Amino acid sequence: MKNLVLRSLSGIVYVAVIVGAILAGGWWFMAFVALFTILAMVEFYNLANAGNRGDNPTPVVVDVAGGLVLSLGLTAMALAGEAPWVTDFSASVIQGTLLLLYLLYLLVRPIVQLYTREPNPLVNLAYSYMAQMYIALPLGLLAYITTVPDGWSLLLVMFVMIWLNDTGAFIVGSLIGRHPMFPRISPKKSIEGLVGGFIFTIGSAFVIKYCFPQYFEATSIAALAAMGAVVSAFATWGDLVESLIKRTLGVKDSGRLIPGHGGILDRIDSLLLVAPATLLYLVAMNLF
Q: What pTM did the predictor assign?
């Protein structure tokens, strides 16, 4: 009972942080991106490089700094249009500075590896660059979703759909799950759970559009339902990708940061694929 209460409370705090950051926008949203980038990247490096880095924290510090430049740089560029103090000139300066800083990271990182005594330097470099693309880039792309019509509303709905997909998959899979979906990587996931998550997510699109039409004036019910399909598919793949990483490294949870839920990567695994996939879908929808 105590574990259930702790799990529920930590889940409420987690959801409140995300919803609050989206509703507040601006600097609060940037703070959210920065926090999740730091936590997820540190957790990933501790997980992936356990026993390889020794006591030298320098590569992790450099990698997290690079990840912050990437995620916050993308966020700042996406939100620049909302800041009244940002002129076209200052926006260009900011973008150029961030680009140079990230190029500096790409230049310095392999040099840092020369001066660290690690048994698998190439493996560690691969992990370093993987985290940039797997964690920092998707988190940085979140803000670009807000640049499309109904952007902030769609960003919030994307998170809601991710959570409902997980909920639907868990409920249906627990009740009637019989056929394994991907036994090699995640034996407990079932095809029935996959369908349940898909139905929950698509269904949420109709409920949300019906209950809150004023927040989705530029988004049709068909477009919202299609977005639900994209979210459901990539949320499932995102979960499986993280399961593949953990199974390869021989661990059950990515960490213990969130009581009852595991690590931060266990919570945002779906998001890391859903964010870029949703952005691509929304951009394509508005182009065509």
A: 0.90
